Every structure is written in C-alpha cells, then in structure tokens.
C-alpha cells in the first residue's frame, strides 16, 4: 500500500458516502459486484478492523457511487483508502492487499 499526500477528505468521505467513520481510522473499500478480489479484500479488511480497536471498515459500491469514484480517482476495484481519525486519506492502494500491508498502513493512520 502506498502513501498518498495531497488527498484530504476531511470528514467529507464519511459524510458524502453516508457512513460513520472509525474513531481512530477507517478502511474504505471501493468494490464492484462481480469483482472476485473484492470479496477477499472485504474479508481481509474486516478481519484487520476487528483486531484494532477504533478502526472501522466501510465498503462502497463503485457502480452506485460514481461521484465518489470520480472525486477520489478510483480507476479499478478493489481500491482501498485508509483514513486517519480526522477522515483524511493517508494511504491508498489498488488491487487485493495483503493483511500485513493493511496493518502497516493502519500504523501510519493512527
């Protein structure tokens, strides 16, 4: 997972998507219905979020939320955005992440 500066959602992504963000960090996954790697990514992110107190996991259907896809420059699924406690994007990655990479990315967010 790579760091990405300059993208800041503030509380925007949570409010725009109509979801509540985690207290310490949030793993936001953009998925599509027929994306096989999205299913595995969902399991990985849910597992990591369950291990770390104050971390939430949100999945957004990219086909239903084209406004967010455009705004956050989502070009493939799955794409994962790691938000800090203030809702700022601190890390983003495309493709199916490894559990260790997700844990490391969370370390940068909390």
How much helix is in the residues?
25-40%
Report the mean per-residue pLDDT as an integer.
Answer: 88
* CATH homologous superfamily placement: Glutaredoxin
| Shape, per Cα inertia axes | globular
How many discrete domains?
1
- Gyration radius (Cα, Å) is 12 Å
Stretches with pLDDT under 50, minimum 5 residues = 3-10
The level 1 CATH classification is Alpha Beta
Query: Which structural class matches the secondary elements?
Result: alpha+beta
How does this model look, in words?
- The protein is α+β, with helices and mostly antiparallel strands and 110 residues long.
- It is built from 4 helices and 5 strands.
- The chain has helices at 12-17, 36-51, 66-71, 99-109, and strands at 2-3, 25-31, 55-61, 79-84, 89-94.
- Strands 1-5-4-2-3 form a 5-stranded mixed β-sheet.
- Strand 4 (79-84) and strand 5 (89-94) form a beta hairpin.
- 38% of the residues are buried.
- Mean pLDDT is 88; it is low at 3-10.
């Amino acid at each position: 997972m790579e760091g990405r500066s300059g993208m800041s959602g503030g509380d925007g992504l949570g409010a725009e998507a109509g979801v509540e963000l985690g207290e310490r960090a949030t793993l936001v996954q953009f998925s599509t219905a027929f994306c096989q790697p999205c299913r595995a990514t969902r399991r990985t992110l849910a597992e990591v979020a369950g291990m770390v107190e104050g971390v939430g996991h949100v999945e957004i259907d990219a086909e239903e939320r084209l406004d967010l896809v455009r705004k956050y420059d989502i070009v493939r699924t799955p794409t994962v955005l790691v938000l800090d406690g203030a809702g700022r994007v601190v890390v983003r990655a495309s493709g199916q992440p490894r559990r260790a990479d997700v844990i490391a990315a969370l370390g940068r967010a909390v």
